[in-house]
Write a structure and sequence with these properties.
The protein is mostly helical. Helices cover 78% and strands 0% of the residues. It has one domain. The protein is globular.
Length: 267
């Protein structure tokens, strides 16, 4: 794999991790279409670490505020009084369904990553969620009115994102819209509720680095890591700005076009 190909993998991971178009689907489909070699475990681990750095860097103020609220609530023995503290607990609660299913069916989900067809079908599923989410959008509920039932429902949709092609951000934003959040609030909560899952995946990928043999020069790995982090940060900012004034339909159209074209001509 050349330096440019390593940078391309970083761009794919950084952009599609946070836009509602599925990073795993693109990491399966783009190499299959372009005939690129599959990235090794070290490269995969580093680009996941890059996107983890991006989301922590973007939301660090929120993370600090939430941690202070949680610790303050515990110190006062009133853990759920503060809205920021409740948000912290909701972030953990929303991550539980995907963590349980992922651990119980890890082998099944890993097998699906060998199938570009599954990834292409997953993009069509993502498109359907985005369209349905927009159709259900009411935009009447703020984060401080979010309930544990809302959180479990939204978080449960992260289970589907264990399949390649199904976007974690896409399904959770759509679920948030269905539960009454407006688009910007649904997008922000999607990132926050996904942070534990992204952190877990990033840390597991980093662990894989130490058990894998790198086959590329160090400059290739560094370039992919930096690219994933920078592109990821920019894409978080882009999406949160986009949903203030625009619908999710363009992302749905993109997913349908990419998925259908691959199914028709890419196999």
């Amino acid at each position: 794999m050349s330096l440019l190909e390593a940078i391309l993998i970083g761009i794919i991971q950084g952009a599609t991790e946070f836009l509602p178009i599925s990073s795993d689907g693109h990491l399966v489909l783009v190499p299959a279409i372009l005939g690129l070699p599959q990235p090794d475990l070290v490269l995969i681990g580093l680009v996941h670490a890059g996107t983890l750095l991006a989301i922590v860097a973007y939301f660090w103020r929120d993370i600090v505020t939430i941690l202070r609220a949680v610790l303050g609530g515990l110190a006062r023995r009133r853990p759920f009084d503060d809205a920021d503290a409740r948000l912290g607990y909701f972030m953990v609660l929303g991550s539980i369904p995907a963590a349980i299913v992922g651990l119980l069916a890890m082998d099944f989900f890993e097998e699906q990553f060998g199938s570009p067809t599954v990834a292409a079908l997953g993009l069509l599923v993502t498109a359907a969620f985005l369209v349905v989410g927009e159709r259900l959008r009411r935009g009447t509920k703020s984060l401080d009115r979010l309930t544990w039932v809302d959180t479990l429902i939204i978080g449960s949709f992260q289970v589907l994102a264990l399949l390649p092609g199904v976007s974690r951000s896409g399904t959770t934003i759509a679920a948030g819209l269905g539960r009454g959040l407006d688009r910007p609030t649904a997008a922000r909560f999607s990132f926050l509720v996904g942070l534990p899952a992204i952190a877990g995946a990033g840390l597991l990928s980093i662990i894989d680095i130490f058990s894998a043999q790198g086959s590329l020069p160090a400059a290739h790995y560094l370039a992919a890591f930096v690219t994933a982090a920078v592109v990821g940060y920019l894409c978080i900012a882009f999406l949160l700005n986009w949903v203030k004034r625009h619908t999710l339909y363009p992302f749905a159209i993109y997913c349908v076009a990419f998925g259908v074209l691959f199914l028709l001509f890419g196999r």
